[in-house]
Amino acid sequence: MSMEQAAKTPASAQRRRGGFTQHMNEISLFVAIAVLYIVFTATAGGFMTFNNQINILRDAATIGIAAWAATLIIISGEIDVSVGPMVAFISVALAYLLQWGVPTPIAFVFAIAIGAALASIAGILRAYFDVPSFVATLGLWSALRGTALFVTDALPVSIGRNDIVDMLDRPVLGVPPAAIIMLALFAVFAFVSRKTAFGRSVFAIGGNPHAAFLSGINVSRIRVALFAIAGAMAAVSGILLLSRLGSGNATAASGLEFDVIAAVVVGGTALSGGRGSMLGTLLGVLVITLIGNGLVLLGINPFFQQVVRGLIIVIAVLANIQAIKRGAARNKG
Amino acid sequence: MMNTAASQSPERTIIASIDGCTKRYPGVLALDNASFDVAAGEVRALLGKNGAGKSTLIRMLTGAEVPDTGTVRIGGEELTQSGSARAQEAFSKGVRVVYQELSLVPGMTLAENLFLGRWPRKAGILSYAEMETQAQEAMARLGLDLPPSRLVTGLSPAERQLLEIARVLLGKPRLVILDEPTSSLAAAEAEKVMTAVKRVASEGIAVIYVSHRMNEIRRISQSATVMRDGRIIDTVDVAGADTREIVRLMLGSEAAQAAKLETKTRESVVLEVAQLALAPKLSSISFKLRQGEVLGIAGLLGSGRTELLQAIMGVTSFDRGTVSVDGKPVGRPNYRRMLDAGFGYTPESRKEEGIVPLLGVDENTVSTNFFTVSSYGVLSARRMADATRRVIQRLHVKTAETDTPIGTLSGGNQQKVVIGRWVHANSRILLLDEPTRGVDVEAKAQIYAIIRQLAAEGRSIIFVSSEIEELPLVCDRVVVLREGTLKEEFTSPDIDQDAVMAACIVGH
């Protein structure tokens, strides 16, 4: 009895501190977002307007929807760099489907299926042929962008008038549908990652793939599924892109993959796998979007904006790593 | 009695000596007033079971540890430094260790590996010609005839081991310590390494050879030092010593007589393995496992115990043979199918393959069967906590909460969870690979009790262990794995530690 108590006290103390460290990440991101709001409200004219806030939400959707899936992929110890070209490719493919007169809802389903199927090629290469996911998705990155550009000659593929597509860009009570879809998907992903065997298996695979395999988790199948989900999410982004631009565009979403990875990493998900959270990514997406939005409003030279963004991302991750290290040291001591 | 064999030859040049060394770690007396020496040109075997103090003795010689009392001399000079400078000091006096974990870079050439980090240079540019000439010479000294420009990838384990030894020889050592150099090798391969060790000694280098394979020891050493409980028990003349006598020295006389186990073994055979072969370790393995039986598999490090379990489980495929479950052959075992058939497997390396350290005890437990803790595909926090609590209670896991990260638990408690996840999955045939490795004494006793209890419930268990003394405490029956087949068989209560150990280490 006394022994159990003795064992209990330090362990629970450790856990409390562990919990604090875990939330430390989210807390510091909240602080960062608050600081960004204060700074931009004070310095950037038009930042705190309703319209601009809606813009921020809509921009966040582009990164966010892809970032939810990317979070799971990175937690599982993998990486997906094919997001940008996938979004562009799907917008082009969807535009053609609509031009050919495929009924809009069916075209949407096709688009999502194409995204999932293409991305699962990378997943299969990773899971069954041991091709590193970076290489597999890099190949996809190049091939998808190339195909879209080749087929369209880099020209927009217009779709004409389409009520359903237009509806996706019409604000509901002032809120763009893209933002609503992003938040709904966030809820789904947050739930899946915490409350389903699939989600917990993703954490187990990222934390220790051998142990996950030996306890009977179907590691290969889950890896393929993760990439398929990422492809489907990129397709959703592609659909929203089409509705926003009114055309399929092979050159769109350039560099999106880096914003997505940056948001996930800023959100505290470890690139080495096994650790991360959806809430962290949500906050990370907000940070990345706010920086982009604020710098534009401040009228900073667009080339220099990239420098500032790069610095902020690296500093955010550096601060996060330091916080985790300090937390771990405290746990030990 | 001390050093009887060693003191026979008159013109010994002592290379390294330890005089009256004691080393105490918290809770353990790792080295107890030990005195030891080794002479030039001598191959000294070092024997002792796990925890006997062999590693501590080696760490004294390499300067990795400072003794609490006593002195260490290399080449007649005492080691005086402390901290990392001491290891440097021992190194500069010519002490080299070849460890079991090989430290070669597979993608570089043999020559580059031999000179790793101190490549010969001319005006700042690597001189490959010189490197390769020297490498060729160094390898030839050990009878390793390979082009120095080829890559390490594709070398056999023995060739890699020889390369490691060659690398050590380049530094002109005076004392070379080999820690179970043949444990990962098949018999024919081990031959090459032994020949090389003989050559090393013939050059006047002192060799300490840690091994338990008596046939090897008999062939390359004159004398063997036996350790037990941190003490040097004796140094015997290998030629005159009988294996049983050496075993007695290793295990001591206090080997506790095991209480008679209450066996619940039933007639029905749940698992039968026939003529299983997997080159190069396993040549022909046949055995039967009955319901409610705990079958111990004893064998030295590298005898193929892990390979056998993994072959049965379908983690690796085997060359020949059949595996039958409940009398029906399963064809090619496939890991997931074996799990469905009611098997459970716990790996030898708990940290690398057993646990997901960042996840909670609960998730590490229910990962074998999410279905029973979900409703409509959604994990139920309450059911997960209940299932975990049941396992925690049954297996006496000490944890603050059910969702405490498993990485913060002690090794013993982690191991109980790793076994417990198969209790959660309700597996009826458990294959446990070294379940008590790196676990404290109290947890060991609990694990034995858990295993007996699981067997009493009608589960069948294969218990692999390199700690001979625990076999009589847990097993209804023990078979000895040696030279690729199962040799002697012992049945409780006649599982005699000395006899099992002798069967493990005896020669051809």
Automatic annotation (TrEMBL), chain A:
<keyword id="KW-0472">Membrane</keyword>
<keyword id="KW-0997">Cell inner membrane</keyword>
<feature type="transmembrane region" description="Helical">
    <location>
        <begin position="82"/>
        <end position="100"/>
    </location>
</feature>
<feature type="transmembrane region" description="Helical">
    <location>
        <begin position="106"/>
        <end position="127"/>
    </location>
</feature>
<protein>
    <submittedName>
        <fullName>ABC transporter permease</fullName>
    </submittedName>
</protein>
<dbReference type="Pfam" id="PF02653">
    <property type="entry name" value="BPD_transp_2"/>
</dbReference>
<feature type="transmembrane region" description="Helical">
    <location>
        <begin position="172"/>
        <end position="192"/>
    </location>
</feature>
<feature type="transmembrane region" description="Helical">
    <location>
        <begin position="56"/>
        <end position="75"/>
    </location>
</feature>
<keyword id="KW-0812">Transmembrane</keyword>
<keyword id="KW-0813">Transport</keyword>
<dbReference type="InterPro" id="IPR001851">
    <property type="entry name" value="ABC_transp_permease"/>
</dbReference>
<feature type="transmembrane region" description="Helical">
    <location>
        <begin position="278"/>
        <end position="300"/>
    </location>
</feature>
<feature type="transmembrane region" description="Helical">
    <location>
        <begin position="306"/>
        <end position="324"/>
    </location>
</feature>
<keyword id="KW-1003">Cell membrane</keyword>
<feature type="transmembrane region" description="Helical">
    <location>
        <begin position="224"/>
        <end position="246"/>
    </location>
</feature>
<feature type="transmembrane region" description="Helical">
    <location>
        <begin position="27"/>
        <end position="50"/>
    </location>
</feature>
<feature type="transmembrane region" description="Helical">
    <location>
        <begin position="134"/>
        <end position="152"/>
    </location>
</feature>
<keyword id="KW-1133">Transmembrane helix</keyword>
TrEMBL record, chain B:
<dbReference type="InterPro" id="IPR050107">
    <property type="entry name" value="ABC_carbohydrate_import_ATPase"/>
</dbReference>
<feature type="domain" description="ABC transporter">
    <location>
        <begin position="265"/>
        <end position="508"/>
    </location>
</feature>
<dbReference type="InterPro" id="IPR003439">
    <property type="entry name" value="ABC_transporter-like_ATP-bd"/>
</dbReference>
<keyword id="KW-0067">ATP-binding</keyword>
<comment type="similarity">
    <text>Belongs to the ABC transporter superfamily.</text>
</comment>
<dbReference type="GO" id="GO:0005524">
    <property type="term" value="F:ATP binding"/>
</dbReference>
<dbReference type="InterPro" id="IPR027417">
    <property type="entry name" value="P-loop_NTPase"/>
</dbReference>
<keyword id="KW-0762">Sugar transport</keyword>
<keyword id="KW-0547">Nucleotide-binding</keyword>
<dbReference type="InterPro" id="IPR017871">
    <property type="entry name" value="ABC_transporter-like_CS"/>
</dbReference>
<protein>
    <submittedName>
        <fullName>Sugar ABC transporter ATP-binding protein</fullName>
    </submittedName>
</protein>
<dbReference type="InterPro" id="IPR003593">
    <property type="entry name" value="AAA+_ATPase"/>
</dbReference>
<keyword id="KW-0813">Transport</keyword>
<dbReference type="Pfam" id="PF00005">
    <property type="entry name" value="ABC_tran"/>
</dbReference>
<feature type="domain" description="ABC transporter">
    <location>
        <begin position="16"/>
        <end position="254"/>
    </location>
</feature>
<keyword id="KW-0677">Repeat</keyword>
<keyword id="KW-0472">Membrane</keyword>
